[in-house]
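Feature request, filed as a ticket because there's no other form

It would be nice if the structure record came with a short human-readable summary line next to the tokens. Right now we just get the raw output. Example of a typical job, pasted below so the devs can see what we mean:
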Amino acid sequence: VQLVESGGGLVQAGGSLRLSCVASGLAFDYYAVGWFRQAPGKEREVISCIDSPNPRTHYVDSVKGRFTISRDNAKNTAYLQMDSLKPEDTAVYYCHARLMSNSTQYWGQGTQVTVSS
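Raw output as currently delivered:
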């Protein structure tokens, strides 16, 4: 099983990035997908998740209205559209997949997002 994130980079405050998470080796349709982030010196935190097959979405308050999570099960891919980025969004962003029926879960390797002021 692999989860591969891409789309991170350096962007100025107010800018946008779109992260992608491509999954392989698992029945993607049966997994909820979450995006986590970890800033230097801080704990990893969940910021958004999306269920399947009913794609209900959830966001933490700090990103609500700025970030949009989505998924394309036909492409085994999840996305995180990040708009109006702030310097405090700087972190390594991780994709996480959790099987809806039990505790099976997988992590991606992470992608760095840096927002300059």
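Something like this underneath would help us a lot:
The chain has no helices and eleven strands.
The radius of gyration is 13 Å.
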